[in-house]
C-alpha cells in the first residue's frame, strides 16, 4: 500500500447522443457513443492520520464539501471499508466546469481507482463501475474510458473500436448550461423520428475506421433544446466547419462544442478563428484517448 497517489482524470465528448424516452422514475433512457479525450484534471490523494476528507481545488467557486463528487467518492469507500484515518485530495481543474464533458464524474472515477490502489481494496474495474453508478450515471464510463456505447441511463456500457486518428478542437463559451433545464425541456417522448441521431451508423463508422463517415453521422438530440437557448453554440459550430472541420457538435448537454479535424493545421486555424472572434472562453486542441495505445502507468 502507498501513502499518496497522483492521477489524471480525463474528459469525454459524445460522438452521438440520443434520448429514447423519459422513464416513469424520472430518468431518461439514452443511447450514446462516448469518447475519452486527452484533456484532463490532475488529482493527488494523500493519506492523513486525522479522520475525514479534505478537498482543495484551484477554482474558488467549486464546493469542497460533500457536494463535490470527489468528496462523495472518497466517502463511499471510507464508509464501506471502514478505512482508518482520512485523506486530503488536491484537485487541479483543467476540464471546463458545467460543460458537458463529465469533468466531475471523471474526477470521482479517479478517486475510486486511486483509493482502491492506495488501500489495497482489491476491487476490479467492474466493482468500481458498480460503485460509481451510485455517484452519477457517467461515473462508470469514466472508470472504463475509451470508446463505448452507453445505454440505460448511461450505466450499461459496451466497448467499441477506438476512434480513428484525428484532432479535436474543444471550445467552451462563457456560459453555463443546466443539465436539468435541458432534459426538462426536451420532451423526449414527443420527438419525431428524424430528430433522433443515427447511433448505429456512428458505431459502424468506428468499425470501419472511417472518420468522414463518423463526422457526417454524429448527432446530439439535446441540441434541440440547448442551441435555441444559447445561439453562440451554433456560431462556434459554423466557425469550425468553415475552417475545415469534418464535423462539429455540442457535447453532452453543452455548452461545449467540439470539432473533428483530419489535420492539425486546420484545427489550429479554427482555434485562432474562435479565439479571434471571442466566441469561447476556453479553447483546447487535443486528440482522442486510445486505451489500447495508452502507456501511462496510472489509468482508470
Structure overview:
- By secondary structure, the protein is α+β, with helices and mostly antiparallel strands.
- 32% of the residues lie in helices and 28% in strands.
- The protein contains 10 helices and 10 strands.
- The protein has helices at residues 69-81, 103-118, 125-132, 139-144, 179-184, 199-208, 211-217, 223-229, 232-242, 264-276, and strands at residues 4-22, 28-48, 52-57, 86-92, 147-152, 156-159, 167-172, 247-250, 257-261, 282-286.
- The strands form 2 sheets. Strands 1, 2, 3, 4, 5 and 6 form a 6-stranded mixed beta sheet that branches. It has a 4-stranded antiparallel beta sheet with strand order 8-9-7-10, sandwiched between helices.
- It is globular and about 55 Å long.
- The two termini are 18 Å apart.
- Residues 294-300 have low confidence and may be disordered.
How many individual helices? 10
Helix content: 25-40%
Classify the beta-strand content into a percent band. 25-35%
Tell me, briefly, the overall form.
globular
Q: Termini, distance in Å? A: 18 Å
By helix and strand content, what is the structural category?
alpha+beta
Helix and strand pattern: EEEHEHHHEEEHHHHHEEHE
Q: Give the total of beta strands.
A: 10
Largest sheet data: 6 strands, mixed
- The radius of gyration computed from the alpha-carbon positions, rounded to a whole number of angstroms, is 19 Å
Q: Average pLDDT value?
A: 93
Q: What ranges have pLDDT less than 50 throughout 5 or more consecutive residues?
A: 294-300
Amino acid at each position: 500500500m502507498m501513502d499518496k497517489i497522483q492521477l489524471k482524470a480525463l474528459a469525454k465528448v459524445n460522438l452521438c447522443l440520443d434520448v429514447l424516452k423519459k422513464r416513469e422514475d424520472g430518468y431518461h433512457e439514452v443511447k450514446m457513443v462516448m469518447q475519452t479525450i486527452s484533456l484532463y484534471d490532475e488529482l493527488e490523494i494523500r493519506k492523513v492520520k486525522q479522520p475525514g476528507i479534505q478537498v482543495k481545488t484551484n477554482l474558488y467557486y467549486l464546493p469542497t464539501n460533500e457536494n463535490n463528487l470527489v468528496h462523495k467518492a472518497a466517502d463511499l469507500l471510507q464508509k464501506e471499508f471502514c478505512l482508518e484515518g482520512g485523506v486530503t485530495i488536491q484537485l487541479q481543474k483543467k476540464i471546463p466546469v458545467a460543460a458537458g464533458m463529465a469533468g466531475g464524474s471523471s474526477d470521482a472515477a479517479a478517486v475510486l481507482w486511486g483509493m482502491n490502489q492506495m488501500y489495497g481494496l482489491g476491487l476490479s474495474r467492474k466493482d468500481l463501475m458498480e460503485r460509481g453508478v451510485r455517484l452519477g450515471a457517467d461515473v462508470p464510463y469514466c472508470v472504463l474510458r475509451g470508446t463505448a456505447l452507453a445505454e440505460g441511463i448511461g450505466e450499461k456500457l459496451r466497448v467499441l473500436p477506438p476512434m480513428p486518428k484525428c484532432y479535436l478542437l474543444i471550445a467552451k463559451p462563457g456560459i453555463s448550461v443546466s443539465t436539468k433545464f435541458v432534459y426538462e425541456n426536451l420532451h423526449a417522448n414527443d420527438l419525431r423520428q428524424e430528430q433522433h441521431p443515427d447511433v448505429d451508423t456512428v458505431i459502424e463508422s468506428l468499425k470501419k475506421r472511417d472518420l468522414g463517415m463518423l463526422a457526417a453521422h454524429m448527432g446530439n438530440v439535446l441540441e434541440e433544446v440547448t442551441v435555441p437557448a444559447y445561439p453562440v453554440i451554433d456560431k462556434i459550430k459554423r466557425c469550425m466547419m468553415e475552417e475545415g472541420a469534418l464535423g462539429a457538435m455540442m457535447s453532452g448537454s453543452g455548452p461545449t462544442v467540439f470539432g473533428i479535424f483530419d489535420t492539425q493545421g486546420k484545427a489550429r486555424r479554427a482555434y485562432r478563428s474562435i479565439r479571434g472572434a471571442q466566441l469561447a472562453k476556453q479553447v483546447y486542441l487535443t486528440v482522442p484517448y486510445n486505451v489500447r495505445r495508452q502507456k501511462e502507468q496510472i489509468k482508470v
